[in-house]
């Protein structure tokens, strides 16, 4: 029941990442925005599947978690976005995901 700062939380493994506070007091918010901007360009179908697997898989045993991951991936396999991602990689260009 003691209070600890972000650096201590990271050292203890309570959090995955911590940031030094900035003068505006919104360092964590700014880092979250930056992370969101990194995630945003990714394929929306795959992101939905990943979010589902992460949310459900973190609450169950490993075998069940892997089943959630497999179920999500099976929904992505036949999408236009998956094919676009593969084509973009092959052609060394940024993907243009449509959400299909």
UniProtKB/TrEMBL annotation:
The keyword Lyase applies. One of its GO terms (cellular component) is mitochondrion. Keywords: Lyase. Signal peptide: none annotated. One of its GO terms (biological process) is fatty acid beta-oxidation. One of its GO terms (molecular function) is enoyl-CoA hydratase activity. Belongs to the enoyl-CoA hydratase/isomerase family. This is Enoyl-CoA hydratase.
């Amino acid at each position: 029941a003691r209070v600890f700062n972000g650096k201590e939380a990271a050292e203890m493994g309570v959090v995955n990442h911590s940031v030094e506070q900035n003068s505006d007091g919104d360092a964590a918010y700014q880092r979250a925005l930056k992370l969101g901007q990194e995630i945003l360009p990714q394929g929306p179908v795959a992101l939905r599947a990943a979010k589902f697997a992460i949310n459900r898989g973190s609450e169950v045993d490993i075998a069940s978690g892997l089943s959630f991951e497999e179920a999500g991936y099976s929904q992505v396999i036949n999408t236009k976005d998956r094919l676009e991602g593969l084509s973009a990689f092959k052609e060394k260009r940024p993907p243009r995901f449509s959400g299909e």
